[in-house]
Design brief:
With about 180 residues, the chain is mainly alpha-helical. It contains eight helices and five strands; from the N terminus they run H-H-E-E-H-H-E-E-H-H-H-H-E. Strands 3-4-5 form a three-stranded mixed sheet. A two-stranded antiparallel sheet has the order 1-2. A hairpin with a 2-residue loop joins strand 1 and strand 2. Helix 2 runs antiparallel to helix 3.
Length: about 180
C-alpha cells in the first residue's frame, strides 16, 4: 500500500480526493513506522518519528510532520482532521476500520469527531460542576478549531449534545485538559 501511495497522481487530485489521500497516507505511514519498530511502548520511543523525511506520497518525500503541518493543516481549513489523523497513541483518535473515501469524507470526518466527543478519553463534561475536560488536541491546535467555530467549546459542542445545550443556555464551562497518553 505504501508503495502504491508513492505512485499516486497527487498533483492531479481535486481538493476532497487530496485530503482523503493525505489522511490515509499519514495513517498508513504511522502504522508502518510502528510495525517497523516493534516492540515499543510508545511512538515517542522512535527517534525522529515525526521529523524523519522518508515517506513518499504522490512522488513527494516528506516527514509525518510535513504531511500534517505543511500539506494538510494549512491547505484545508478542516479542524475535524485532528480526529482523523492517528498518532498511534492511546490519547490519539481511534483508527477507522476503513480508509477515508472522498465520496464519503464529510460523513467519515463527522463520525470520527462525534465518536471522540462522546468518549471520556477526549471529552468529559461535568454539568454539575460546570467543567469540561477536553483532549489536549484542543490545546495544541486551538486556532484550527477557533478559526471555524469561534472557540474550542463551540467546535466541541457541534459533536456533543449536552455541551451544545449548556452553551445554548448561556453556560460556559471551565476547561481542564485531559491527560494525553503516548502509550
Amino acid at each position: 500500500y505504501t508503495t502504491a501511495l508513492a505512485k499516486a497522481p497527487l498533483d492531479k487530485l481535486g481538493r476532497t480526493d487530496r485530503l482523503a489521500f493525505l489522511l490515509n497516507a499519514y495513517n498508513a505511514f504511522t502504522l508502518k513506522l510502528i510495525v517497523e519498530n516493534l516492540p515499543i511502548a510508545s511512538i515517542k520511543d522512535i527517534p525522529d518519528a515525526w521529523d524523519q523525511v522518508r515517506w513518499n506520497a504522490g512522488g513527494y518525500t516528506w516527514s509525518l510532520n510535513q504531511i500534517e503541518h505543511e500539506q494538510i493543516r494549512p491547505n484545508f481549513v478542516e479542524p475535524r482532521l485532528h480526529f482523523a489523523l492517528v498518532c498511534a497513541a492511546i490519547g490519539s483518535p481511534t483508527l477507522r476500520n476503513e480508509a477515508f473515501d472522498p465520496a464519503r469524507l464529510d460523513t467519515q470526518l463527522t463520525a470520527q469527531s462525534t465518536f471522540a466527543h462522546n468518549h471520556d478519553t477526549w471529552l468529559k463534561f461535568d454539568e454539575a460542576n460546570n467543567s469540561i475536560g477536553l483532549t489536549k488536541l484542543y490545546l495544541w491546535y486551538g486556532d484550527d478549531f477557533a478559526q471555524v467555530e469561534g472557540s474550542v467549546l463551540n467546535h466541541a459542542a457541534k459533536f456533543n449534545t449536552a455541551l451544545k445545550a449548556a452553551l445554548a443556555a448561556g453556560v460556559e464551562p471551565d476547561i481542564d485538559w485531559l491527560p494525553y497518553s503516548w502509550e
